[in-house]
Design brief:
Alpha-lytic protease prodomain-like, Alpha-Beta Plaits, 2 domains, mainly alpha, 67% helix, three-stranded mixed sheet
Length: 316
């Protein structure tokens, strides 16, 4: 498990590398598009240029999300990375809609005959697919390593560019073989694929912002671990919530009534340490201890009058 500083450093290195790669790739594709008389390749190059903006958004989001807790944000700033992922998901969706709209116009709008591009455009498309696919796997691996939604969104942005280049290749090849309709049809397919990727990124970011619990397998593993801690007589409840790329866990356990306070406290500390040691994504675990007798009968402590709400005092 990497430290917060190491995670931030890795994310920044990947984002900087992505930005540099996209700058050179976009310049190369635009130049190849002009030299080969390929409108598709020029558009593809502009699409790659938009990825530079996406990389900058990720860098800002990661930097802000790794800021230390302060008085106004005592639980940290992890959710800022979710906001970054949402922005990138929206950018992905807009790119997809733009590709789809252009493709639909060519199919149903009666566009004139396309100029047959030169072979250079085909080689540029192949190079773009290889480079962008490599950037996708490189960024995705880093995102999985640090559980970063923003980096994962950036990875899918690379994949969308690779798919766009595949569409460009098919369209250019089709035009050279005498089937120009393949270009817009490929664009429509790419549109739906990118939209699905945008949906997955968006849904993942939203789930991390609305305190969704961990998956069933992780929840079961947490419960099993707590029950194995010596001194825990019963697991009363366990609740989890995803906060950005981290997890918070609240546990209630029952211990024997006869235990002294320090012994019950040590059991709670053991549960706390066991959870954070075995589940690295858990940022904090709160453990509440109940006496075992509370499980056999109702035992509620009544509040003193001075602690009751004003409305309750009036009724009394």
């Amino acid at each position: 498990m990497l430290s917060a500083r190491q995670e931030e450093h890795l994310a920044m290195v990947v984002s900087v590398n992505s930005a540099i790669g996209n700058i050179f790739l976009s310049l190369g594709k635009v130049a190849a598009g002009f030299m080969a008389h390929s409108t598709a390749m020029i558009s593809d190059g502009i699409h790659s240029a938009s990825d530079v903006f996406g990389s900058l958004i990720v860098m800002v989001g990661v930097k802000l999300s790794h800021r230390a807790s302060d008085k106004e944000h005592q639980y940290g700033h992890e959710r800022l990375e979710c906001i970054t992922a949402l922005i990138l998901a929206i950018i992905l969706g807009l790119v997809a809609l733009g590709i789809g709209f252009t493709a639909a116009q060519k199919i149903f709008g009666g566009a004139g005959e396309l100029e047959v591009p030169r072979a250079l455009a085909l080689w540029a498309a192949v190079a773009s697919v290889l480079v962008k696919e490599a950037m996708f796997w490189y960024t995705r691996a880093a995102a999985k390593k640090i559980n970063s939604g923003a980096l994962l969104a950036e990875a899918w942005h690379h994949r969308s560019d690779a798919l766009s280049s595949v569409g460009s290749f098919i369209g250019i090849l089709g035009a050279r073989l005498g089937y120009p309709i393949l270009d817009p049809l490929a664009g429509l397919v790419i549109c739906f694929m990118i939209l699905y990727a945008a949906y997955e990124v968006f849904a993942d970011a939203v789930n991390k912002m609305v305190d969704r619990s961990v998956d069933a397998a992780t929840d079961a593993a947490l419960e099993d671990l707590v029950r194995k801690v010596p001194g825990v007589e019963h697991l009363d409840s366990l609740a989890s919530r995803i906060f950005g790329n981290r997890v918070y866990v609240d546990v209630e356990i029952s211990v024997k009534d006869s235990l002294p306070l320090y012994a019950a406290h040590n059991i709670a500390e053991t549960v706390h340490a066991a959870i954070e040691a075995n589940f690295p994504l858990v940022k904090h675990c709160m453990v509440h201890v109940n006496p075992l007798s509370e499980r056999s009968h109702e035992c509620h402590m009544s509040l003193p009058a001075e602690l009751l709400p004003r409305a309750a005092k009036k009724k009394a």
